[in-house]
Structure formats: structure tokens, C-alpha cells
Amino acid sequence: MNAIIYILVTSIALLHFYFFILEMFLWTTPKGIKAFGLESKAFAEKTKVLAANQGLYNGFLAAGLIFGLLLKNTNIISFFLSCVIIAGIYGAYSTKKIRLFYFQSVPAIIAIIIILIQLSR
Hints:
Layout: H1 3-25, H2 30-35, H3 41-71, H4 74-95, H5 98-120
Helix pairs in contact: 1-3, 1-5, 3-4, 4-5
């Protein structure tokens, strides 16, 4: 596995770890409210259990990617990258915010393409 894959996958994992922190612990803070464009603190309070659940899934995505890197296993990495891509597509579709697709799915798509190119050599 080359350095580009390590850097890209580590970056994606760190991004999802950041989402984990925001959604699990900072959802009702000014930082969380601003990051997700929530309408009010009251709305954030009402939805914090849902956000924590969502954050937990992002934590699992980050852990899976790191696990794959530690094992140097492109199958595990590719599986979790695929999960990231699907989550980004659904997130962009369900929230009508296309930036989610570019921010979440595109880096994972690039990483999978690089892995596939490397495996075909």
C-alpha cells in the first residue's frame, strides 16, 4: 500500500472521527449548531439523541478505516470506504445539501480508485 492511500484514508478517518466528536458531544454547543446549520439550540436539544446515534456510526467508520490501515488490508479499507460513499450519497440526498457528497463521498471515491489502480498493477 502506498503513502497516498495511507494519507488519504487517514484523512477520511480523521474527518469521520471529527464528525463523531461533533455529533456525540458538541451537537448542542455553538460549534455543533453552526457546523450543522441547526435552526436553534432548542432544536439541537430535541435532536441530540439522534445526532449521538449518527455520531456513533461515524466513529465506527473511522475505526474501521484505521483498523484496515493497521492490518494493511485493502479489502477492509475498501469496505469502509464504500460505507462512507453510501453515507455521503444518502446524506446529500436526504438533506438536499450537495456539498455533503463532495465533502464526504468524493475523497472516498478517489481513495477506492487509487486502491483499484494499485491492485491492478
